[in-house]
Amino acid sequence: MARMTSMPRPLLNRRLAEFGTTIFAEMSALALSTGSINLGQGFPDTDGPEEVREAAVRALRDGRGNQYPPGPGIPELRTAIAAHQQRRYGLAYDPDTEVLVTAGATEAIAAALLGLLEPGDEVVALEPYYDSYAACIAMAGGRRVPVTLRPRDGAFRLDLDELRAAVTDRTRLLLINTPHNPTGTVLTREELTAIAALAVERDLLVVTDEVYEHLVFDDVEHVPLASLPGMRERTVTIGSAGKTFSFTGWKVGWVTAAPGLVAAVRSAKQFLTYVSSGPFQYAVAEALALPESYFTAFREDMRAKRDLLAAGLAEAGFGVFRTAGTYFITTDIRPLGESDGIAFCRALPERAGVVAIPNAVFYDHREAGAPFVRFAFCKRLEVLEEATRRLAKLRAR
Ligand SMILES: *Cc1c(COP(=O)(O)O)cnc(C)c1O
């Protein structure tokens, strides 16, 4: 009897099959092969404060953190994180039971979802989303339910009715990100208050990614969700040193939450990396204690960069959305006579020598994100100036 030939089983499992490789790999390779300025991936092209870098060197030389640090993170850093939350937001966390150090915010997000979700649980998340959210929800066996941020009055805004309608009896968790990557939206106190009321009413957990907490511009205020009524006991807040101190390669992140929530996140975290970034933890503990002048100067520096790039993009003919926070400006390419952001970003290096990221890849509803393209402005002023000179070609055509 002839043997039935069957399709070979794919190597990549079904949970991850839809994700492929991230757009950043493709676009960064294009940047290299075309000699383009890479405004795609969000990392600064200058390092953070010299004294913080020196603190890492000292820790390494003194033999602090070169062996496995404690599972929850070194006490000095947990204490510094708790002090930061108290000083900035009046939020009191016990460094021993309510703070957990992670391998960047990326691990914090993964561990929170892996530790808190049962298979089939629904997670309501703001779309477009940071690229690890969908994959982490999938790895945890959850189901993502996107709520789309839509352009209104020059910025991307949340429709609170849409958010309320997305919550079902299967919803376990709201996954929030403010300041929001890639749109640059910072949720207002009113919006956050409505989210908090919904979470309390429907008894939901909230995971909130606040890695850009220090990068808000003009008179915009970052309000931590955990500071709103009824939220402290149900909210997992995620922070990171990478964005705040311009050391994205160090991968020091953290979680602050009530003891039961931290324990759940830790249960997953201990089997992912167990621990990470030993000497860098000592340096970040010192960084968090920097005077307010550091944070003010950092914000001011980034605001100037935002303004320069926003003006250049407008000059080149893009529709430019207002960025209230983060490293990013989202643009609309329709005024340039374009509508497909993915095709536009693939062609842009050849056309203008600049790399950007199509927002569509951050959506489930790709068509809702099709005409939007993200540019990072966390680069030296001369790099941004050269990028805007190059982009001016688009208009000249
Ligand atoms: C960069 C980023 C992260 C990842 O932070 P790491 O500390 O580098 O892991 C998480 N969330 C958002 C929204 C980000 O932009």
Bound compounds, please?
pyridoxal-5'-phosphate
Q: Which bin fits the share of residues in helices? A: 40-55%
Identify the quaternary structure here. single chain
Largest sheet: 7 strands, mixed
Determine the number of helices (DSSP H or I, runs of at least 4 residues). Answer: 14
- Widest beta sheet: strand line-up: 2-10-9-8-7-3-4
State the shape.
globular
Instruction: Catalogue the unreliable spans.
Output: none
Report the β-strand fraction as a percent range.
15-25%
Question: Cα distance, first to last residue?
Answer: 67 Å
- Structural class comes to alpha/beta
The average pLDDT score comes to 96
CA gyration radius, whole angstroms: 21 Å
SSE arrangement, N to C: HEHHEHEHEEEHEHEEHEHHHEEHEEHEH
Number of strands: 15
Description:
The chain has 397 residues and is an alpha/beta fold. Helix content is 41%, strand content 16%. It is built from 14 helices and 15 strands. The protein has helices at residues 23-34, 50-61, 75-89, 104-116, 131-139, 160-166, 189-201, 241-245, 259-269, 278-287, 292-315, 341-352, 366-369, 381-396; strands spanning 37-38, 99-102, 122-127, 143-148, 150-152, 155-157, 171-177, 205-209, 235-240, 253-256, 319-320, 328-332, 354-355, 357-358, 372-376. The strands form 4 sheets. The chain has a 7-stranded mixed beta sheet with strand order 2-10-9-8-7-3-4, sandwiched between helices. A hairpin with a 2-residue loop joins strand 5 (150-152) and strand 6. Helix 1 (23-34) runs parallel beside helix 12 (341-352) and helix 2 (50-61) runs antiparallel to helix 10 (278-287). The longest helix is centred in the C-terminal third of the chain and has 24 residues, at 292-315. The protein is globular, with a radius of gyration of 21 Å. The chain starts with 22 loop residues before the first helix and ends with a helix. The protein binds pyridoxal-5'-phosphate. The site of pyridoxal-5'-phosphate has 15 residues, from helix 4 and helix 8.
